[in-house]
Each structure stands twice: as C-alpha cells, then as structure tokens.
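I am writing to request your help with a piece of structural work I have in hand. The matter concerns a single protein, recorded as an amino acid sequence and a row of backbone structure tokens. Could you please explain, in whatever detail you think fit, how the structure tokens follow from the sequence? Thank you for your consideration; the sequence and its tokens are set out here:
>
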Amino acid sequence: MPEASGVAEAVVLVKASPQVSQKHGETVCCAGVTLEGKWVRLYPVTFRKLEDAQQFKRWDLIRYKWRRSKDDHRPESYRVEQESIEVVGNLAKRDRPNLLSRLEVTGLNAIAAEGKSLALLRPQQPKFLIAPKAADEIAQERLDYASIGKQRDMFNTRVLVPLEPCPVSFKYRYRTDDGEREGTCQDWETDATFFNWRHQYGEAKALREMERVFGEEYPAKGMTFAMGTHSRYPDVWLINGLIRVDEVTQMMLL
C-alpha cells in the first residue's frame, strides 16, 4: 500500500500562473522532478505568502512535507504543507540536460495511456500566438484578484497585493507525434516577462519583444513544454511551463 504522507525533495521545473479559487484563495500549481526522475505535482501553494527564504524558483531543490490528496487522484499529485517548504540547493547547469533528457517525450498519447498526467514535451514546429482577452474576462479576473488581496488569516496578517490581469493570452500551436495541438501558456515566468517589458518599453514594444523571443528565439534555439492534465478534465493537456534548453547532445559537448 502506498504511503499516505512523508518528506521528499524535488527540483522545481514549473510554477504556473496564479489561480484564484474560493477554497484556497490565490494558489500556484508547482511541479518538479525528484533526483531519481519522478514527476511530482505540488498543490496548493500560496506563493506570495511564503517567507522570502522559501520563495523557490526554477531549478531550486526543495524539501517539503507531503500527504496524498483526497480529491486529486492523478498519480503525481501531492498536497504540500506550505510551511514546511525549504530551499536546500539548486541544480547546476551542467546537470540539467541529463535530468531533462530522461523526461523528454515527443507525444502525449502514450503518456496518457500509462496513466500519467505530467510530461516534458519537445514540440515540433511551435508557432507562438498572442490573443487579446475579452474585456469581461479581464474584468472578472481583476475582481477575483482584488477579493483575494483583501484576505487575511490567523497565521499571516499580511495583505496580498492584488495581481494585475494580463491583457492577452500567450499560446502555442505545435505538432507532436500524435498530431497538431494548440494550448495556452500558463507559465508564470512568461506573464512576468511581459509585465516587466511593458513597464520598461510600453505595451506595443513589449508584445513585439514577446514575439521575437518566444516566437523566434526560443523555437530556434530549442525549447520544451512542461505539460500537465487538467484536474477536472483528464484528457486536456495544458502548457504549464516553458523551459528553454538546447538539444541535450549539443549541450553535453560544451
């Protein structure tokens, strides 16, 4: 019988964009890989409530307490005790290609047939798309963020700064061994890049830079998608993270 709780370590690969829910407030779905190459999904994490020393980033090695989720039956899903998260290291650049090469796939159907819900996909012919959000969608997101920003709890009296909804959706159309797919990029770092560039250059130039970097530079140099299924729709695969990486064979020659 599998264990119901424990302590584990994983290298962080994914921090998806924050989502708002009535049950957990503002949460971030994170995913990583153990040093043995096993995928883990860690949820719910209220990232902006973490202490500074706990705020992990991609490639950090974290230690955490976990227990099996009662309402999420995906095999990689674990409920993490947020207060237990500790950054204990960082995966060196020279070790990253070997870790990723053990995970990389070129199709999703076979992964789904094995009952898995996380995968690192090397997309074929990725085309970057920018789609404006509808005004009512932005308005609803703004209301959701504002309501969460006012929340307090008995353990954390800090009021969260409400997030600003991104005015556009970033998507990719791409091919896999299973055929053509299209999906919205839910990677937090992608949205953060847009907001940073908009602050520096204005929105028009920021979008041009997004197209240049994510639409031209990343596909040309090599990229992977950290894919995950939706908790309520197991047949729907989401682009939870973008990982820029050269072909492993090239990197190992450096």
